[in-house]
Amino acid sequence: MADLDVTRADAVLIGGGIASATLAAMLTELEPDWDIVVLERLDSLGAESSDAWNNAGTGHSALCELNYTPQDVDGSVSPAKAISINEQFQVSRQFWSHLVENDRIGDPSEFIHTVPHMSFVHGMENVDYLRRRHEALVANPLFDKMQFTTEHAQLADWAPLVSEGRPVTETIAATWSPDGTDVDFGALTRQMLAHASRTGTTVSTGSEVVDLRRMGSDWGVMVRSTATDAIRVVRAPFVFVGAGGYALPLLQRSGIEEIRGFGGFPISGQWLRCTDPETIARHDAKVYGKAAVGAPPMSVPHLDTRYVGGKRSLMFGPYAGWSPKFLKTGRYTDLFESIKPSNVTQMMAVAPPNLDLMVYLGSQLAATSHKRFEALLEYMPDARESDWEEVTAGQRVQVIAPDQKKHGVLQFGTQLITAADGSIGGMLGASPGASTATSIMLSMLEKMFPQRIETWRPTLQQMVPSWGTKLSEDPEQAHRTLERTADTLGLTH
């Protein structure tokens, strides 16, 4: 490395998505004198899983996602995970509000809009489940505006496209929450990194990290220019790996003990996107249903209103697929190169307990375009196939984690990995990562900078006033926080 161009920084953040953008926005306030470097392999920011067309779910707050409220064998519905995810989303809303209030970022309508969140089911058994779910959640102040119905007339008011063409004799149920939002995480990422850049952070696109090595008390981050193939090294005592699916191979290259045993299982996807402006204008909701047996959480079907570049869109899906790539712009060798002696046992062990997932993925891969359209008809009976086009979604790499017996467990969610000395950390996994990125980065700060966290605490609590408390246990604070962030972000409430 002695002959290479070597520069020094106080912290290097790998990846130009929502995770690195959030951490950069925080660090510029916590340590304004630090030299922070953000490295992104693509020529644009927020273009992989943070991009609005790639993201499997935008505005995840557990208001409508049924996989966060499992039903026990006795029929009861546990709200704990849904409440936890909503708590984390409120942390994100507070941080975004802080950035808006202090002119760190611009017009919030460029990245967030009010979009009601709905759950929709049919059949007696599912209706009973949704009623129990509503009863379990509505008692909580974060969910107390949620409404429940089994009436077709009410469904027609909330979501006319879901109601039209549906037999009035069909047994249906739906919930509706006015607190739902749609978030364009690609736009938000670019706003936050633009703010960080204005305050001294170096944001380098076209910069692919090809290796991570210890250099004394620092990390040497080896960077290849995608334009010229020139290699340079950035030395820093702290490194965060927020590179989406590439976080796993980069952490493996670092050689830290904490990544041993971890693997990844990539899942791709497709959307149907509406091309008819009149249809798009008639639907204003995210309508989630129940996942098929074996389906990963990111593949829960939904009829989804989104705002991309300020323009309203309507999507349905995602339909799961498979590719060995770890990023949409990744390489077909990604999965195979990630298999190491330290994780091969775990990678092999996940197959037998997840045969239903394999069967589900096989059925999705075999499905024709017309078969995929038939799935849309369950949510929109009067849909016309000519009004929809197929769009490729982003890649997700689900975490394969070692358990106490050194076996592998396939996890659906996000996981932090940090070295024992706090010098390097990364985020693995997928949904609901973008929506909960602020909470994840606060946890990362606590793990990587335990000696600084108390000094930072007053500033962090200005960013997120509820940090360290639970809004779900304080109705007055919960309602006050929801109203304040809604006003700041230009949301209806």
TrEMBL record:
Its cofactor is FAD. It comes from the Bacteria. One of its GO terms (molecular function) is L-malate dehydrogenase (quinone) activity. It catalyses: (S)-malate + a quinone = a quinol + oxaloacetate. Pathway: Carbohydrate metabolism; tricarboxylic acid cycle; oxaloacetate from (S)-malate (quinone route): step 1/1. Residues 470-493 are annotated as: Disordered. Keywords: FAD, Flavoprotein, Oxidoreductase, Tricarboxylic acid cycle. It holds the Pfam family Mqo. It is an enzyme of class 1 (oxidoreductase). SUPFAM superfamilies: FAD/NAD(P)-binding domain. The keyword Flavoprotein applies. Its EC number is 1.1.5.4. Belongs to the MQO family. This is Probable malate:quinone oxidoreductase. It comes from Brachybacterium aquaticum. The gene is mqo.
